[in-house]
Specification:
Blueprint: E1 7-10, H1 24-40, E2 43-46, H2 58-71, H3 94-106, E3 110-113, H4 117-129, H5 145-152, E4 158-161, E5 168-172, E6 176-180, E7 189-191, H6 199-209, E8 214-218, H7 222-235, E9 241-245, E10 248-249, H8 265-271, H9 275-283, H10 298-304, E11 315-316, H11 319-333, H12 339-345, H13 351-361, H14 371-375, H15 387-390, H16 396-406, H17 427-441, H18 445-457, H19 465-472, H20 474-487
Parallel strand pairs: 1-2, 8-9, 10-11
Antiparallel strand pairs: 3-4, 4-7, 5-6
Helix pairs in contact: 1-10, 6-7, 9-11, 16-17, 16-20, 17-19
């Protein structure tokens, strides 16, 4: 198979409004497949597994595809663009599943099952109560084939696969051969009574028909791979290279769930996280480049990706690391990337001032949703002082001296060079005034800058002080200094 062009697929199930959203685990699976296809020059196929008719919706399908597009994970074949192995919705491929199931029955490898669901459920409960694995007991497997075929013409029935009584080896690129005993699984259903295929059967039929060479998915699919390997063998088909990637766990090392925080890609998109940050972070959940790098561009990820660098141990989802990468990507993109988002929070400002304001706070951002809080100090809004911050205003002499120095331009008009109106306060003028006050009063470090920061912003940390002063403007800076002199 090494000379065969790589063909991988991502096959989500569009079931329900919430389940239909692209979540972290699914996005990571799609990303690994996409990276492998792009790194090898292969094909990335999108297949929609919508055989759960009652729960599958077009809205969920659209949401999944929109999430992939936002992440920049483009596909080479799929339901919207077609391709040589279509159709790419399972609901449009029912004839293939029926033909394959019939072929297996004709060879004695599958059979009709007339058991009612309520009877099967009672047997499952009884087995579990007795400490036995809830396997199908094979009742219908013992019906004489001609009798079974005759009954199938008039009675509702499912189609079951006849599982051979032997060990099964599931080849896995990360784990070697995983061996399952004969007791691991009983005869399983291929087609439901309504004629719809179950996941494992449709998956094998489609992967074979679409010539999928590698299947990358979570290790929780190992039990599914057991059934699928049996089907590949029964159909005389080669088994694709199976790669069961590590699970994603929360910080408490339990399976990732909503209690661990935001899991939907739609959430991160709505918050204004850069898609490049999600791509970068998800790639590091179960894979590493081998050289210690963490911050990587999309192009660097494609160039470095290999199946050999996948990690078997569970990946821990760390929101703080995602935030760190998001902040890094925001700074790399620059203020212009946030200009559109800022218009919502700064409706009355010019784009030039918006860009200066974003530049002042950009080091403190991880997503666009952080803008309102960070920008409030630059919009004339000042939070109430905490007791800790209030104590910095006790140095009235410093506040008064800087007020006097800034009451009129002292160092020539550098406003034009900074693209500001004549007489406007520049960051450079503010800095020079503060340094002069520091020399006169023999103040440095926090004793010099903290009273001024608290006076201008009401808090003891934040963006560069000179940038804040330039954005606030001379009149507002003087007003806040004079107010703080009275307060101190």
């Amino acid at each position: 198979m090494s000379d065969t062009p790589v063909r991988v697929r991502f096959a989500p199930s569009p079931t329900g409004s919430d389940a239909g959203s692209l979540h972290v685990g699914g996005a990571r699976t799609a990303l690994f497949n996409w990276l492998f296809a792009r790194q090898t020059g292969g094909a990335f196929v999108l297949r929609i597994e919508d055989t759960d008719v009652k729960r599958s919706t077009i809205a969920s399908e659209d949401s999944l595809m929109d999430g992939l597009r936002w992440l920049g994970l483009d596909w080479d074949e799929g339901p919207d663009i077609g391709g040589p192995c279509g159709p790419y919705r399972q609901s449009e491929r029912l004839y293939l599943y029926h033909e394959t199931a019939q072929a297996l029955m004709e060879r004695g490898l599958a059979y009709p099952c007339f058991c009612r669901e309520e009877d099967l459920e009672a047997k499952r409960e009884r087995a579990m109560a007795e400490g036995r694995p809830p396997r199908y007991d094979g009742a219908c497997a013992r019906i004489d084939p001609p009798v079974a075929a005759m009954r199938a013409e008039s009675e509702p029935h499912s189609v079951r696969f006849r599982v051979p009584e032997r060990e099964v080896q599931v080849p896995d690129l990360l784990r070697g051969e995983v061996v399952f005993g004969v007791e691991a699984v009983g005869d399983f259903i291929l087609l439901r009574p309504d004629g719809m295929p179950v996941y494992n059967f449709a998956c094998v039929v489609d992967d074979a028909a679409m010539e999928i060479t590698h299947v990358l998915r979570g290790e929780d699919h190992l039990p599914n791979s057991l059934r699928q390997v049996l089907l590949y063998e029964a159909l005389g088909l080669p088994v694709p290279v199976l790669v069961h990637v590590s699970m994603i766990l929360g910080a408490d090392r339990t399976k990732l769930s909503k209690r661990h925080g935001a899991l939907s890609i739609d959430h991160y998109r709505a918050q204004g996280y850069p898609p490049e940050a999600l791509i970068n972070y998800l790639a590091l959940l179960g894979w590493n480049p081998g050289d210690g790098r963490e911050a990587m561009s999309r192009e660097e990820l494609v160039a470095a990706f290999s199946l050999e660098r996948l990690v078997r141990s569970p990946a821990i989802f760390d929101p703080d690391k995602l935030d760190w990468l998001a902040g890094l990507k925001i700074r790399q993109a620059g203020p212009e990337a946030l200009l559109e988002a800022s218009r919502r929070y700064l409706p009355d400002e010019t784009d030039a001032r918006r860009l200066r304001m974003i530049a002042a706070v950009i080091d403190h951002l991880r997503c666009a949703a952080d803008l309102p809080e960070e920008l409030q100090l630059l919009r004339g809004e000042r939070p109430e002082l905490t007791p800790e911050a209030q104590r910095w205003l006790e140095n009235r002499e410093l506040l008064q001296l800087v007020t006097n120095l800034l009451a009129q331009p002292l160092y020539g008009d550098g406003a034009a060079a900074a693209g500001l109106p004549a007489g406007a306060l520049t960051a450079d003028e503010f800095t020079r005034a503060v340094k002069e006050a520091g020399r006169d009063l023999d103040l440095k470090g926090k004793r010099l800058f903290m009273p001024l920061r608290v006076a201008l912003t009401g808090v003891d940390q934040g963006p560069e002080l000179a940038a804040i002063a330039e954005i606030l403007g001379r009149e507002e800076v003087l007003a806040r200094l004079r107010y703080s002199t009275q307060e101190g």
